[in-house]
Amino acid sequence: MFDNEDSTLQDDTGLQYVDCIRLIDGGQLHKFESLVMKHDLIKMETTTNNKPLLFNAIEHNDENFVRLLLEMEVPLDKTYGVMIQSSDLSMESSIPSLENQHHMIKRLMNAHEYALELNRPHLANIIWKKMNLPSFEERYQNTIRTNDIRKCDNFIRKIRNEKRQYELCKEGIFLAAYAGSVRLLDYFLTRWKIDINIQKQTDDGYITTPILTAITSNQSEASKFLLFRGADGSLKGQFDNALVTALNYNSHTDLIRLLLEKNVDLTARHPSYPKLSLRDYCVITDRVKAKCEIDNYIAKLISNGSYKKLKYLVDHGYTHLNVRLKGKRDGRQLANERYYSNIVKLIDDVEEAKARARQKMNY
């Protein structure tokens, strides 16, 4: 009934495809599931002209196999050339003859049309309902939005192929970060061992990570969770590292505080203000709370005697060390009170350099 079917498949994938056909012919559902778990035959169906597996299940009127293949998201828009009988009369004669009364013609059909052709209305109805569902991507996004681990796990496992499941989970961690679902982030990281710093390219051509996605979506709790799980805030996206991104999106101060505590580079610059430090950026864009968090972080470094970190900041262009503190005190006085002479000298050198620069500008 089908023509031009390649019966000499030589590669391993082709042999597995033939095995699938035999399992469908024999109604061996469980063996079929075991086979497709290791071999992505659905991908092969989209890249070859072989007869779709769903057509075989329709021929055998096997509802269980049809439902299984539909759950695996086999392509329903794929067509295949089918030879069918035609009873058209000859245009040259008004008397039908045996030759022109029944001849075979080739017709391209999808699975739904083929089920109707074989008079399988119940299978055609099942396929039709599947065809009228939202797209696979939209259904996956809706599942993520439910914030339900069981529903998400069921959705993924129905794919029944390890490679496709893993690829789906790699996309899922970004969707969970966008939705702010801490439960699903933990699910993808723990159950599927997805790399917490996995990167992908956005539609705008920028690189993003789960934590950058969470920050750009203003999902502070999800962002903090990823930081606690070990996400690297130094990886750069559209607005440089995670700290710059958080400042750009005016994130909550507790997230900014955590990013600073995780030593995300304070010397980075906002791409729209490359000549300004992040503190100056906060001042010019009226991000007062964020500026205070940065000053508190510097004060904490001074209080703890973190000379190496302060020296790193100075060496990379950050000069706002002499921060104002309560009681009309400043960072230098705090360092002097704690007997951190090296930090006192560092602040003095920075202030002296700033004074020379201002004097030079006046000339």
* CATH class division of the largest domain: Mainly Alpha
Question: How would you characterize the largest beta sheet?
Answer: 2 strands, antiparallel
Quaternary status: single chain
According to CATH, the fold-level topology of the largest domain is Serine Threonine Protein Phosphatase 5, Tetratricopeptide repeat
Order of strands across the biggest sheet?
Answer: 1-2
Quick check: average pLDDT? Answer: 90
**CATH superfamily membership of the largest domain:** Ankyrin repeat-containing domain
CATH architecture of the largest domain: Alpha Horseshoe
Describe this structure in words.
InterPro entries: Ankyrin_rpt-contain_sf. With 363 residues, this protein is mainly alpha-helical. The protein has three domains: 17-83 and 105-132, Serine Threonine Protein Phosphatase 5, Tetratricopeptide repeat (Alpha Horseshoe), CATH 1.25.40; 135-249, Ankyrin repeat-containing domain (Serine Threonine Protein Phosphatase 5, Tetratricopeptide repeat, Alpha Horseshoe); 266-362, no CATH class. The chain is built from 21 helices and six strands. The protein has helices spanning 12-26, 29-38, 41-47, 53-59, 63-71, 98-101, 111-117, 121-131, 136-145, 149-157, 162-179, 182-190, 210-216, 220-228, 242-248, 253-261, 278-284, 288-303, 307-315, 331-337, 341-362; strands at residues 80-86, 103-109, 200-201, 207-208, 324-325, 329-330. The strands form three sheets. It has a two-stranded antiparallel sheet with strand order 1-2. It has a two-stranded antiparallel sheet with strand order 3-4. It has a two-stranded antiparallel sheet with strand order 5-6. Helix 5 (63-71) runs parallel beside helix 8 (121-131) and helix 16 (253-261) runs parallel beside helix 18 (288-303). The longest helix has 22 residues, at 341-362.
